Amino acid sequence: MPTLLEYFNNDFKDLSLDTTITFTVQHLDNEKNVVGQDNIEIKERIRQNGDSSVRLFTYFIPAFKDTLGIIGSVMDQLDKQVKNVEGLVVIGGFSGDVQVGEHKSIYSNRIYFYTETLLQPDEIRNLDKFCKEKGLFVSVRSTDYLKRKMDTEKPVAFISHDSRDKELIAKRLSRGLSSRLCFVWYDEYSLKIGDSLRESIEEGIKDAKKCILVLTKNYLSNPGWGKKEFNSIFTREMIFNERIVLPIWYGVTKEEVYDYSPSLADTFALTWPSPENKTEDEYKTEVEQLISKIHTAVTT
User: Fold this and answer.
1) Is the whole-model pTM more than 0.85?
2) From residue 13, how far is each of 8, 38, 56, 153 by CA, in Å?
3) Residue 171 CB: number of other CB atoms within 10 A?
4) So which residues are the catalytic ones?
5) Would you state the pLDDT for residue 126?
6) What are the percentages of helix, strand and coil residues in the chain, rounded to 5?
7) Which domains occur in the chain, in start order?
């Protein structure tokens, strides 16, 4: 499933200016002597609306015991951060626009913090007081935000695969799509303890916009759940007269797919890359390129 960092990266579709800020946090004993320190890296993404030139500060803070202190430090140096990016000018518009006058970027007083550590009620009260003193409006999105998003999102795609292909293909595919906030039904993430496997699978097939079939020799030779999922998917296609199947082939021939399903052999398919004779980086690049194509196919 998507992580909080992936929501931070994808929630806003504006242009962005990305930086990483490192804070050094000192630990003091009872006599105020420094007894240690931690370095924490904060992701800063300044979003700019292309039509209005309004800029919005957003931050991602990883798990840390003094999240409130980090938030306060970030807000204390906003003026410094504004100066750091003042020289970067981005002017939206269309080719042929007549633009006159002096351009100026405006900074919103609203700030978004994505925090892996949930703030406690007393910390929220202190933050509210601090924001009012600074004239700022802060939205905090934490683990509770992640849970609510997952509870309300319906899957865009259902991944039908053989369990023997989980590590090589299905898990990589699910993670890649989830990182793009393309929600998928995938048994490792979609099933909870006590769920009915059959009912959950059928619900996933009914709700998903597209059904991805990971066609391998394992899948084609499996008479169990894979075949049942396949039949349910094609039943939906026939009843509602819609094209929802997106096949991915790996290590199979057209003749083998035809023997499994003649109509499936004539359906446009993508081919999962082979890791053989490639470095790990080369293989990852090819996989990412394919997942981008799949993402486009299931979201358009």
Assistant:
1) no
2) 11, 33, 12, 18
3) 16
4) 229
5) 95
6) 45, 25, 30
7) 4-148 (no CATH), 154-299 (3.40.50.10140)
